[in-house]
């Protein structure tokens, strides 16, 4: 081999070697690089987690909105996490993961059962303040509960039916989930309120799985199964909207007294149109904001007040259309 051919061979081998090394790095990086779960800039003094019942639920998005606004005002990094669809065991896993991630504070929906109590204990033992939002678990070691007094809110549902109906009332309940504590408390409050009269009777209850379509199906099957039902109550945010659809489909001409929960725009619209008779207001944006505000405080001191109730009230058509007493929020 002459010198020129040798040079050519060496050059070729070197270029080939170089390309292989570069290729190996690029491939190796792509194959083995794991996206970090979140990038928290060092400039944030605190990193809080907000664990919601379900990612894309309008009600939880409002809690997130209030929380994020207050977080921003306080320079806090707020991470919003939730199961895609409501699921207690998935939520508990998220809670465990946030404890392991050693965030500075956890704001979470309260969940039924011993596992939640154990996890809250674990978090508190590791020095992570925990706030329950929307749904409380009073016998856990959570620092504070921020949200509606759900028993009282359930009583309001009963009160409005007592005040606005005459004669015997047969009630079908459309509830978010049987295993959600706030739903149980609302129904308990409702039952307590109607104890004062003997003309209101609960016929049956069905779950909506906190979806509008679920509420439509629940209302439809309640009405089909029990023709004497003349009151339908919804105990979670999308239930009222779903109930109205269920009635439209099955008994468009029957006069049914309907109560809903929450003040999502579509629910208020239906109240305005007289298709929902009353709704029980909750203020999720305020819940989110207050939880973050309290969580910032908990970073430096314990709180004596362990319950921060955000107001609730009955809203009917005249509250929305009669000036000046409309819904201000
Ligand atoms: C409840 C929440 C629930 C939501 C569902 C609200 O009334 O307070 O716990 O996630 O309804 O849409």
Would you give an account of this structure?
It is a single chain. Helix 2 runs parallel beside helix 10. The radius of gyration is 27 Å and the shape is elongated. The longest helix is centred in the first third of the chain and has 30 residues, at 3-32. The strands form two sheets. Strands 2-1-3-4-5-11 form a six-stranded parallel sheet, sandwiched between helices. A six-stranded mixed sheet has the order 7-6-8-9-10-12, with helices on both faces. Residues 29-37 have low confidence and may be disordered. The protein is built from eleven helices and twelve strands. It has helices at residues 3-32, 58-73, 88-100, 114-125, 150-164, 181-194, 212-225, 239-250, 265-272, 284-298, 317-321, and strands spanning 46-51, 76-81, 105-108, 130-133, 144-147, 169-175, 200-207, 231-234, 257-261, 278-280, 307-309, 314-316. The protein is an alpha/beta fold. Bound molecules: beta-D-glucopyranose (BGC).
